[in-house]
Amino acid sequence: MTRVLFVSLKGTARSRIARAWFEHLCPRGFTAASAGIRPGAAVDPLAAQVMAEVGIVLEDEKPLSVYDIYRSREVFSRVVTVCSSADARECPVFLGLVRQEHWAVKDPRAHAATDTKLLEGFRRIRDEIRELVAGLCDALQG
Prior knowledge:
The chain is α/β, with parallel strands linked by helices. The chain has one domain (2-141): Rossmann fold, CATH 3.40.50. The chain is 38% helix and 18% strand. A 5-stranded parallel sheet has the order 3-2-1-4-5. Strand 1, helix 1 (14-25) and strand 2 (30-36) form a beta-alpha-beta unit. Helix 1 crosses helix 4 (115-141). It is globular and about 45 Å long. The two termini are 15 Å apart. The model has no long low-confidence stretch (mean pLDDT 88).
């Protein structure tokens, strides 16, 4: 079984979106988890909204801590950090045999001045992450 862990700063938007796309686009036998470095309280409502626009429901479970996952010794085929260049220094490095990659996806809440721009930012990262996940699925099957 191929398992992928997606990690973002809070685990409330980017890693959640990546996990949802992975489970939607990849074949059976592929599973994913998402976690945050400093987990937020719940899924970001705008992340849930933009994924609902494409027919995908984000579960409203409390984000997991990447450190709790690390301590649990769960095994993943790959760890993908979904952090912008601004918060990449806080994304952890997993040592060992796991393959890790970094996707520099901007935080949609970082520079949005209006509600309209904020929603556009969430749609943009939703679509960007979809393309990245599709490529990952292809590579893992390859």
